Structures are given as C-alpha cells and as structure tokens.
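Slides due. Your pick:
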Amino acid sequence: MFDKILVPLDGSKLAERSLALADLLVGERPAAIILLRVPVLKGYQLLEEEAGQRWDRQEAHSYLDEIMARPRHPELLMDKRVIKGDEAAVIVDTAVEENVDLLIMSTHGRSGFGRWLLGSVAERVLRTAPCPMIVVRYADPIRRLLIPLDGSPLAEKAIAPGLETAQRLGAQVTLLRVAGETGDGYVKPQTAFAYLQAVVNGIEGDTAVDIVVPTGPVAATIIEFVNTANIDLIAMTTHGFTGSGRWVYGQITEKVMRGADASLLVIRPPAEELK
C-alpha cells in the first residue's frame, strides 16, 4: 500500500524524523521516496530578491542531494523536488501530481514563517491531503498503534493502513470503541466489544491485536487512553458517522490530534464516500 511516499523537509534535523520513519516503512522492498523542499524567501530588499531566491534554491538542492547520497538498500528509488510557493499548497499539489500513497511530516521543524506545528503548515496539509498522512511528533520507535472505531464503514477505512503500518514497524495494535453516550446514541459495552471482536476475526495475518472498550465522552476518552497506555501512533479517518455526531475533521479527530500525546496517521476516504 505504501509504495510511494512523499516527505517534505525544511532543512532541520527535527523534520528529518519523517524521513527516518519513511525508511522504516519501506524496509527493503522496492519502493520510492520523494523528498520535497520549498525554498523560503529571506526577506531581502527588492533589488536583491532574485539573487536571494537563486541562493535558497541552490541550498535546497544541495541539502536534498546530501540526503539522497546516504546509504540505502538498492531497491529504494529516491527522488527530489524543489518547488517555490506556499508550503502547504506545494505539499498537497505535489502529493496529487505524484500520486503518492503516503505523506509524512513532522510537527516540528524550521520554516520561513515559524514552525511546522499543528495549527500551521502540517494542519493546513491535513485538511486537504489527498492520501493517508502521518504526522510525526517524536523520534521514539512506534511500538503501540491505536485504531479508534465508531462502528461506521468510513471509520473502518483506517484499519487497513493502520495494520500495514503496524506490520512494517512491528507494532502492537489496539482497536478501541467508546461505549456509552457517543453523540449518535447510546452504545452498550457488550455491543462495542462484539463489534470489535468481529473486526479482529476478519483480520488476516499474524498481527497481534488487542480490544479496548472504555466508556465516556468520545474524544476525551480516546485521549485519556492514548496518554495512559503509551500509544505511539493513532490511526483515524477524518470522517465517521454522517449524522450530527460524525467523526469529522474539526470535531473528534481534531480534538484527538490536539490533545493526544502521540503521532497521528490520518486517512481521508474518497470524496464520494463522504456524501
């Protein structure tokens, strides 16, 4: 599934966490990683602006060339793009044009207008990313992966990419469904457990999967579990139920993204499935 990965970099070691994760995900399989750098204007005076752009573009190419020269397995194809423009727009446009399977960004890094924090470039990309996107918060290995579900087919779109990520990283998987009053009616704990057990029964392969059915407000309950169970990565869709309490970006997913102390794998289902 993740055979072509886009990794935007801003020249900082923190942003290179994304590249380290991309290397782990592709392993020694035939795959492609595209490195992207968006040159940043330096605030030069008007007469110096053209020279400033040339310098920054040259520096961007040199930086990516140095990364591409690092030893990697021979089946991995490395390529680079240096494109001028608005960071978020360039990242999304490149993901579309290159038809990538996965986009990986760090929530930290250095850019011309501050840091790649949620609320800035990474969050803007999340809103329109055409493919699954991983937002990396820490350099620590990903050992535990959580897939929160709400019982809807759209929320289940996170299962396949979540499982693939876990398999490639050797991570333990936990499926979670919140019981109680969820905003779309009352969910009995036994109903939630039976649903998750049916999902586990349909999973192929030997990935270890746990089931958790906590009770409470949906977003707060997910966040509490993530922060107490040492979850490293959360896999969620940007939509779930289509009713008033749906898991739409700006509601449950955004609350979890902001409140949970973990990296995030966000999957956006095709537009026709969100109607």
About this structure: The chain is about 35% helix and 20% strand. The chain has two domains: 4-136, 144-274.
